Amino acid sequence: MRNLEDVWRKRSAHYTEELQKYMRYIFTGHMAIVIVFLMGAGGYQYSHWLDANHGNINTPSLEIATLIVAFFLMLSRPVTLLKKPDEVYLLPLETKLGVYFKHALRFTFTTQAVIAVIVYIVMWPMLRQVTELEVSQIVAGLIVTIVLKWLNIQAEFAYRWNKAGEHVWLNRLVRYVLNGAALWGVLTGLYLVLVIAVVLFIALWLVDKKNIVKQPFPYEHFVALEDNRMMGIYRFANYFTDVPQVHGSIKRRPYFDFLYNMVPKKHKTTFEYYLFRSVIRTDDHFYLWLRLVVINALIVAFVDITIAGAIISAALAFAVAIQLKQAIASTHEFTMSMLYPLPQESRQKAAVKIVRYFIIAQAVIVLLASIMQPYFYVYALIVLVVGEVTLRLSK
To answer: Whole-angstrom Cα distance, residue 395 to residue 392?
Structure first.
């Protein structure tokens, strides 16, 4: 038992160090500025919406808050920090794994409950101003939220053990409904609904917990679950710095085949064609561009503060230009393209041209997303100017 506790302590400490190491690259100075502007713009929009709907009984604010909080309660994937060798080395200790998982589930609750509480607190002004609930009701809802988060983590862990994760979406759907019903009951004062929902929830959990006594622990499922979770963290961090654990996958994306006609299939445009296909087919490059553009489009579509939208558009245009250019302009590994009978500077020139295409596409998407805003054309113009200046001045 002591050995398993030591194993958990070492792994949790290493996991924390790993997160801190990559968070330093993610939350840099310019990213902090973008986050501050996003929070400020979002807070302003939220405050404006609250003032416009103060005391409006026709606004389904209680339903919105319940559905949003219930969703974050439902997402309760357990953090076990298991590794592939554990399938062999921990097998003899299977009967004593309860000590290890006790710490794992406690760690999962500590980290995930914070997110659920933050989401609930964000909903607090809406519950107070629009629905005009009493503070005591809202506090009771917060307490129920914390309790439900603990139950969700326990229930999902037991279900994954019992069914090896098969059809986990169905289990989540049932828990989502029960979470929503429980929150609805406590916030509306219908405590019978709350009691019924919690009783059904506990019954669902206890059935799986009883069945796992007869089931061997599904190491393969939990190891794969942990690998996928960590790879998601590494992929996100890889957008800001090189992560050794990430190896970009390649997909054809046949629905974009028609775009290749934009680049003539000629000898002098060899690198342009090659790099254009690389950006579209390589997950790291394509999703980097797509995520930044989607964030930009959502901001200019829903944020009414022109200066905030303009600053964020400029920051995201810079990020797209600099990161895409650095990703495709040169490579430290051998590729067959190095054997092409073309001048050495051809790749760099082609990279600038291809990134310019994606900057133009970003500007068009931003223009369409902001069409309902005053001075909507300003955002697209900023994307074009900042993107072009970045391409010309960056090395």
So the answer is: 8
Tens of pLDDT, residue by residue over 106-147, are: 999 999 999 999 999 999 888 888 777 888 999 999 999 999
Give how far the C-alpha of residue 344 lies from the chain's centroid of Cα atoms, to the nearest Å: 39
From the list 375, 312, 304, the residue with the least C-alpha distance to 46 is 304
> What is the spatial distance between Cα 290 and Cα 273, in angstroms, rounded to a whole number?
20
User: At residue 260, what is the residue type?
Assistant: Y
Q: Structure tokens of 209?
A: 């917990």
Q: How many other CB atoms sit within 10 Å of the CB of residue 286?
A: 20
Residue with tokens 């129920």: 144
- As a whole number of angstroms, the distance between CA 336 and CA 355 comes to 21
Average pLDDT over residues 34-42: 71
Identify which has the larger pLDDT, 22 or 337. Answer: 22
Question: Is the distance from CB of 120 to CB of 145 less than 8 angstroms?
Answer: yes
66 with 177: CB under 8 angstroms? no
Three-state DSSP class for residue 282? strand
Using only the alpha carbons of the chain, give its radius of gyration: 25
* CA gap 161, 80 in Å, rounded: 12
Q: What is the pLDDT of residues 307-347, one digit of tens each?
A: 878 888 888 898 888 888 887 876 655 566 666 677 767 77
CA 75 to chain centre: 12
Core vs surface per residue 307-341: b (16+ CB within 10 A) or e: ebbbbbbbbbbbbbbbbbbebbbeeeeeeeeeeee
